[in-house]
From TrEMBL:
UniProt protein name: Short-chain dehydrogenase/reductase SDR
Keywords assigned: Oxidoreductase
Organism this protein belongs to: Conexibacter woesei (strain DSM 14684 / CCUG 47730 / CIP 108061 / JCM 11494 / NBRC 100937 / ID131577)
Family membership: Belongs to the short-chain dehydrogenases/reductases (SDR) family.
Molecular function in Gene Ontology: oxidoreductase activity
Length: 264
């Protein structure tokens, strides 16, 4: 997509990958709507010398259908103008299933999967009417390679993968596209929390990671290039490949790196 003049809405834009994507988009002549759970968490972007036309933080609390509907009501017709929706906001919980708190699992599925579906459904009619739009969904390598300790997070991200792939086929010929980000380990608060939580039972020492700015640069280029999938590269690319073949390879890696007894 040519981003000149495009209205781009990014969720979870106040920190982590979402903020890095907002910073990268601001290098283009876009109208940027930075979706944040709370406006208090938003620190203005430094856009001096950047090409961005307009940046505005908008409240998008994705914690429940009712909260999202209330935010939609505040945004009104502005949502009809969105050309690029980046469903980025997300949460993570993990560890042995029997030790995970059900409230955290529910909140995670809500933001990772249901909120992305609800937002997409809201902006899609405007995109279809204009015959132009890109829905970017931040999936994860966990949406493909289902490792122990990640059962519920992987389930939420596999849902994002299925949603995106199915929608992509449904939208064929409409001018509206989807882009699936198969995000690998990216330096952020979530990665720190994930490493701390998973490493109780899983050897995370071999995880490869990227700076958020680098992943955001690739993501925005993928939007411009009308790509369907942005793959992770490195060892995560091999895990993605292995995930769609027989399960034995991932079984073997998991058997080597996981222990039900805490590792430390
Ligand atoms: N980092 C990685 O290694 C990695 C790997 C694969 C996929 N991902 C995916 O990439 C996305 C961004 O992750 P990140 O690493 O940047 O995480 P992060 O640093 O923890 O940031 C998460 C973002 O999501 C927002 N968010 C969470 N729950 C929300 C809710 N109920 N309503 C509105 N916003 C909410 C947070 O807002 P608050 O500041 O208000 O909490 C924050 O902006 C997620 O979908 C994640 O699953 C990350």
């Amino acid at each position: 997509m040519n981003l000149d003049g495009a209205t781009c809405l990014v969720t979870g834009a106040n920190r982590g990958i979402g903020r890095a994507i907002a910073v990268e988009l601001a290098k283009r002549p876009v109208r940027l709507l930075a979706g944040v759970r709370s406006l208090d968490s938003w620190a203005e972007l430094d856009v001096a010398g950047q090409r961005v036309r307009d940046v505005r933080a908008v409240r998008l609390d994705l914690s429940s259908r009712a909260a999202i509907d209330a935010c939609f009501a505040q945004l009104g017709r502005e949502l009809d103008q969105v050309d690029v929706l980046v469903n980025n906001a997300g949460a993570m919980t993990g560890g042995l299933l029997e030790e995970q708190a059900m409230e955290e699992i529910e909140a995670m599925v809500q933001v990772n999967l249901l909120a992305a579906i609800q937002l997409t459904q809201r902006v899609l009619p405007g995109m279809l009417a204009r015959g132009r739009g890109t829905i970017v969904n931040n999936a994860s390598i966990s949406g493909y390679a289902y490792f122990p300790s990640a059962s519920t997070y992987a389930a939420s991200k596999a849902g994002v993968v299925a949603f995106t792939e199915s929608l992509q086929r449904e939208l064929r010929g409409t001018g509206v596209r989807t882009l699936q980000l198969v995000t690998p380990g990216v330096e952020s608060d979530m990665l720190d929390a994930t490493t701390a939580l998973y490493s109780r039972h899983l050897d995370t020492s071999g995880w490869e990671t990227l700076p958020a700015a680098e992943w955001a640069r690739r993501a925005v280029e993928a939007i411009e290039q009308d790509r369907r999938v942005l793959g992770p590269g490195g060892r995560s690319a091999l895990a993605k490949l292995a995930s769609r073949g027989p399960a034995q390879l991932l079984d073997a890696i998991a058997a080597r790196s996981f222990s039900r007894t805490p590792r430390r």
